[in-house]
Write a structure and sequence with these properties.
By secondary structure, the chain is mainly β. It contains no helices and 38 strands. It folds into three domains: 156 residues, no CATH class; 177 residues, Integrin alpha, N-terminal (Methylamine Dehydrogenase, Chain H, 7 Propeller); 84 residues, no CATH class.
């Protein structure tokens, strides 16, 4: 061995930890012109994090140039003085192009390649390395199994899945059947709660009188009683309270077992209190989540059907404040949701739809109002710009996509006629910060009324953003009237990722939609089809990719002045 600082050869012995043992012997290209190496065989197995309902077979693998990075994992002395076994991790990114029946999907994955080599080092020297990884052969296959499920109501015509809501802490789906019969009481309504993803029925809760429509509106998301389960808001907007017909009531139920925690009755006739409900977070600073209840047919100050929204304390059920529609017939409160902190006071703010409002003389173009959750003061409003569009018919908060840290507003306008396609429907994403439009999806087919239901879902196309499911229950695919559709849309580009269709006429598939990505890498999408009393749970196919890859690695030592490498290993 030469003295430190005099290198005759910079020789690296690479041992790949596989069976049978394979080796690479490389000579650093910056010292000599010759390099010797062999292919390394490696197998990788990983889940594909996409919502796939169709067959996907062919996979093409492409290495991404210049993506190598090296991590020094360890340096252990050997029995030979000055000799060390150095463990490295080489990372390299690859692009996997997955070819499915109707589309092509791209997935970028950084793969890990373990490396060990023997070096003679001076004292206190930490070597630096450079690596190049080449792909000489790859073969990837997808193995998938369907994980979709179906739930059905118990009575024909109960409108099972007219509404639904998802619990997260202990995953469940709450399904509303507002036309269910309870004993001799027609249309009393009920809710049914199933655990997910296994679909086990946990319990039912029913309305108390004929025509209650209990289960017409639902929301979950907050634990009111502190038992670790998301609790459930249930609206019964057609209930008769005393002598007031269709006044309505709301119950707060324990998500764990369905016991009643609070009941709020309304006394204004025809107000339809409970048409829409939403948890709001802590608005009054008492540490307990509060909630919203809409009565879109209320007539405040004599303004017929202007609509009202009531904000209640979750701790006591007392009224915190009331918001009223501006003009007769606005249907203020037809849809509502809580968004992030728009005005910077640390308290969630509110978005409320008035789809029958006529801003600037545009008949029923619709409006969305954004209010301070703390004070109920108006922050701004978004006005519809198209006759009869009904902007604000549906509303959901969408996780932040523009980087301002505040969830966006996802809104449906099912009466919209984009490009002259009558009532094709539209959906919009608005910035919650100022109401500016971020995305417009224009329904592609006349009469489908895209946007009757909207929801964010998980990242379906692997672009780092949540995507959208848009219900079009009036669609008539393959001449099956009102069978319904759901469009899965990229929130970044508005591109249609997939279209799901109802199977029979009058199914109204897509009347309600709800999405979750909390259980695993694949999104779960629930689609209500109340026309045939069905709820569809789409988990797509769980795809595992198995790849056989042959790699060529060139490894170079950089700090050569301080490194002694024996000529023979």
């Amino acid at each position: 061995m030469d003295k430190q600082g005099k290198l005759e050869k910079d020789l690296i012995k690479y041992v790949h930890n596989t069976v049978p043992r394979q080796e690479i012997v490389c000579i650093s290209a910056d010292l000599v012109l010759d390099s010797r190496y062999r292919d390394i065989f490696k197998e990788y197995t990983f889940d594909v994090p996409f919502f796939l309902t169709e067959d996907c077979a062919a996979v093409h693998c492409t290495p991404l140039e210049g993506t190598e990075r090296i991590l020094l994992l360890g340096k252990e002395p050997t029995v030979h003085r000055g000799m060390y076994n150095v463990s490295l991790g080489i990372f390299k990114s690859f692009l996997f192009t997955i070819h499915c029946a109707t589309k092509t999907i791209e997935l970028t994955k950084e793969l890990f390649i373990p490396v060990s080599c023997s070096l003679a080092l001076g004292q206190a020297v930490t070597p630096r390395f450079e690596a190049q990884v080449y792909l000489t052969y790859s073969s990837c296959i997808l193995e998938g199994e369907s994980r979709n499920a179906w739930f059905f109501g118990q009575q024909p015509g109960e409108q099972f899945a007219f509404a639904m809501a998802l619990g997260d802490a202990h995953p469940f789906v709450c399904v509303g059947s507002p036309s269910a019969r309870v004993g001799a009481c027609h249309d009393a309504g009920k809710i049914t709660v199933f655990s997910i993803p296994d679909g086990v029925k946990l319990y039912e809760v029913s309305g108390t009188a004929q025509d209650d429509d209990f289960g017409f509106a639902l929301d979950t998301g907050y634990d009111l009683n502190g038992d670790g389960w998301d609790d459930i808001l249930v609206g019964a907007p057609s209930a008769k309270i005393g002598s007031a017909a269709r006044a309505g009531y709301v119950r707060v139920l324990s998500g764990k077992d369905g016991t009643t925690l609070l009941t709020i009755n309304h006394t204004e006739e025809e107000a339809q209190f409970g048409w829409a409900v939403s948890w709001a977070g802590d608005l009054d600073g008492d540490g307990v989540p509060d909630f919203l209840v809409a009565a879109p047919q209320a007539s405040p100050e004599g303004k017929i059907n202007a609509g009202s929204v009531f904000v209640y304390s979750g701790a006591s059920g007392s009224l915190l404040y009331r918001l009223d529609g501006q003009n007769p017939g606005d249907a203020f409160g037809y849809a509502l949701t809580t968004i992030g902190d728009v005005d910077g006071d640390g308290i969630p703010d509110l978005a409320i739809g008035a789809p029958l409002a006529s801003p600037s003389g545009l008949y029923q173009a619709g409006e969305i109002y954004v209010y301070s959750g703390a004070a109920g003061s108006l922050i701004y409003k978004i006005e519809g710009t198209e006759f009869n569009a009904g902007l604000g018919f549906s509303l959901k908060a969408l996780p932040d996509i523009n980087g301002d840290g505040i969830p966006e507003i996802l809104a449906g306008a099912p009466g919209s006629s984009p490009g002259g396609r009558s009532e094709a429907g539209s959906a919009y994403i608005f910035s919650s910060l100022d109401g500016s439009q971020l995305l417009h999806f224009a329904g592609p087919v006349s009469g489908e009324e895209v946007g009757i239901a909207v929801t964010p879902v998980g990242d379906l196309d692997n672009d780092g953003q949540p995507d959208l499911a848009l219900g079009a229950p009036s669609a008539s695919p393959h001449n099956k009237r009102f069978a319904g559709k759901v469009y899965l849309i990229s929130s970044r580009t508005g591109q249609i990722l997939q279209v799901l269709e109802g199977q029979e006429s009058w199914n109204q598939f897509g009347w309600s939609v709800a999405g979750s990505s909390l259980l695993n890498a694949n999104s779960i999408l629930f689609i209500g089809s109340p026309g045939n009393d069905a709820l569809y749970m789409y988990q797509g196919k769980r795809h595992i990719m198995r790849c056989e890859m042959h790699l060529c690695i060139t490894l170079s030592v950089l700090q050569k002045r301080e490194i002694l490498i024996p000529a023979m290993l």
